[in-house]
Specification:
Strands 6-9-10-3-11-12 form a 6-stranded mixed sheet, with helices on both faces. It has a 6-stranded mixed sheet with strand order 18-21-22-15-23-24, sandwiched between helices. It has a 4-stranded antiparallel sheet with strand order 2-1-4-5, covered by helices on one side. α5 packs parallel to α6. The model has no long low-confidence stretch (mean pLDDT 88). β11 and β12 form a beta hairpin. The protein has 2 domains: 166 residues, 3-Layer(aba) Sandwich (Rossmann fold); 246 residues, Rossmann fold (3-Layer(aba) Sandwich), CATH 3.40.50. It is α/β, with parallel strands linked by helices.
């Protein structure tokens, strides 16, 4: 048995009258990757915020290396060697890597910044991680996985021996995920202990040594990730029942073409893209990093203008010059990055959910609270959201419930077409099934749904047809009967339809 570096015993936490942790225990071993699992709102982030010094606990004891320890704030946590990489990255895009690593702890030579020393120390950290990056590189020029790497490097600058990673792969592609996993394994081999919060149970099986499962604020299971553990076992612990996607998909009658793109192009983003979507059809767009699908549909929904080519809605050519124009044409949009584009952090849950229909809830320019309450209550019930008080800030919700609020905003205008970019980002297995059922329900009522996703299982479960993209172009169109993970990966990595037909 490896050495125990962290022991949390009997942790309790309440927010006003809402109790979120009930005597939770967690044991973290040296040089291990420990999965912390649970549905949205189960208490995972709260427990780690206590360990990371972000929140005080109401009761319980923390031991570091066998010694009782008081972690009163984030500075005390850092002093104990605890680093926290939050789901929202905190880097400054307009600064270089080394400048980001030394924010707040800049080194000086006399009155001047010692850039040479900071550069060299940054290079040492990146070399330790096995990453070939120039510390002079601007963070804004990095893809998301390398931004994660820079966040990890920043924790190592503070000699972290324990690193908490909250949903680090939520918005990464398969290639980017492997990059982050490589770093995690390297750190484990160097004696660092990591807490991995994730809803992607296949990743837990691949990368983690041990696991702990929380449900409704209680610790319900823990142990080693070995041959006795499976994705089904973990998901059952998380939701308290067996999760099955069997019977999710059902074939429907689809109508005429309602949305069409012809030879759509935008410099360096996508090119020659032609596609169509029928009424009541679920159409997937998938591929790898940089395939252009998000940028393509940002143009279709009016947030990435100008573009070349034509967009047709119900057979009529339309220049999608603004988001409001697309919404007036009956097109709703769930953006890929809810933190940056899906929510307004300074507004309440109810305000965020009702933004798309705010005009219908007003009288003489004044918001009618009773109408807003009726509207939000409807979607809270339908989407099975966990909400303590709709007047709280949207940031008080777990990531998955924030995603449901973004879905509610998209559905509130009763659209004919819904474009969902990465719709289950940061969503637990139970909520994922709820969202998948919602997509099926929408399609059965005649709403057309476009699903943009890098997750092949998601595409396979939901879609009637799929377009696979590669380097900005549509590589192939596959009917449901033709779909497989192998075919999607072959096409997404540069294979052609002709080559596929010969195999």
């Amino acid at each position: 048995m490896s050495e125990i570096v962290v022991s949390m015993k009997g942790m309790e936490k309440s927010f006003s009258s809402n109790k979120v942790l009930f005597g939770v225990d967690l044991t973290l071993h040296k040089a291990s990757i420990h999965a912390l699992l649970g549905e949205n709102g189960a208490g995972k982030s709260t427990l780690m915020n206590i360990l990371g010094g972000v929140l005080p606990s109401d009761a319980g004891q923390i031991e570091i290396d066998g010694k009782p320890t008081e972690i009163s704030d984030t500075f005390a946590a850092k002093a104990q060697g605890i680093g926290f990489i939050h789901q929202e990255l905190t880097l400054v895009n307009d600064l270089s890597i080394f400048e980001n690593l030394f924010i707040g702890v800049e080194e000086k030579r006399g009155p001047f910044l010692d850039k040479k020393s900071m550069y060299e120390k940054s290079k040492e950290i990146l070399d330790r991680m096995g990453i070939d990056l120039d510390p002079m590189t601007m963070v804004g020029d990095l893809n998301t996985s390398y931004k994660q790497v820079v966040e990890i490097a920043r924790t190592l600058m503070h000699n972290a021996k324990i690193i908490i990673m909250d949903e680090p792969t939520a918005s990464l592609t398969e290639v980017e995920i492997e990059n982050v996993f490589k770093i995690m394994r390297s750190l484990r081999d160097q004696g660092v202990s990591l807490v991995f919060i994730s809803h992607k149970l296949n990743e837990v099986m691949e990368i983690c040594d041990r696991y702990t499962v929380l449900r409704n604020g209680h610790m319900v299971a823990s142990g080693e990730v070995d041959e006795s553990v499976s994705v089904n076992v973990l998901s059952t612990h998380m939701v308290g029942r067996e999760i099955s996607y069997d019977g999710l998909y059902h074939k429907r009658e689809v109508g005429e073409v309602i949305l069409e793109g012809k030879q759509l192009e935008r410099e360096k983003e996508y090119r020659g893209a032609s596609f169509h979507v029928k009424k009541g059809e679920i159409v997937g767009f998938t591929g790898l990093l940089g395939d252009g699908r998000s940028e393509l549909f940002e143009s279709v929904v009016g947030v990435n203008y100008p573009y070349q080519g034509e967009v047709f809605v119900r057979g009529k050519a339309v220049k999608m010059s603004s988001r409001s124009k697309a919404q007036n044409m009956g097109i709703s949009y769930v953006p890929r990055n809810r933190k940056e584009n899906g929510i307004v952090k300074d507004l309440s849950i109810s305000n965020n959910m009702s933004l798309s229909v705010i005009n219908t809830l007003c009288k003489w320019g004044i918001l009618r609270k009773e109408k807003e309450t009726a509207y939000t209550d409807k979607y809270i019930r339908e989407l099975k959201m966990r909400v303590h008080n709709v007047r709280n800030l949207i940031t008080s919700l777990s990531g998955g419930n924030q995603q449901k609020a973004v879905l509610a905003k998209a559905l509130g205008s009763n659209p004919d077409i819904v474009v969902m970019d990465n719709p289950t980002q940061g969503v637990d297995v139970g909520a994922k099934l709820e969202i998948y059922n919602l997509v099926m329900q929408l399609a059965s009522t005649g709403v057309s749904v476009v699903v943009l996703s890098s997750e092949a299982p998601e595409i396979l479960m939901l879609c009637d047809r799929v377009y696979v993209m590669f380097e900005g172009g549509i590589r192939a169109e596959l009917e449901r009967s033709e779909l497989s993970e192998q075919k999607i990966m072959f096409l997404a990595t540069g294979g052609t339809q002709e080559q596929l037909n010969k195999t």
